[in-house]
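Progress against Task 2.4 (sequence-to-structure conversion) is shown through the following example record, which the project officer requested during the mid-term review.
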Amino acid sequence: MTLKIKIAAFVIGIIALVVAGIGIMNIMLVSVTERTKEIGIRKSLGANPRDILTQFLLEAVILCNIGGIVGIVVGFGLGNVITFFTAFDVEVPLQWAIIGLVFCSTVGIAFGLLPAIRASRLNPIDALRYE
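Structure tokens generated for the chain above:
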């Protein structure tokens, strides 16, 4: 029974990560679109495509990790509430929280890569003309 619950939780978690990743990608694509002029200015002043790629990937990872930290805090909080009101001894291992943050970073990199590549490939002249 416990194995089936773990498998179900794993599948639900993977689905949640994919949905969250699609949301992150959409947010980052909107960010690239809104900041096209800024990207053009940075590129015209000498920024490498790698610098812009790194900036947008870092933003995606930070965004995902903020969501992960909020999830960890809520999870630990709910675990403490359950132990307070029930006789269950709920224990959430710290290792799982760290693994969760690693997964959040992986999702940020995987789904933030397309918007970051799109931002790094913008032509500076076209980006400066964009309104």
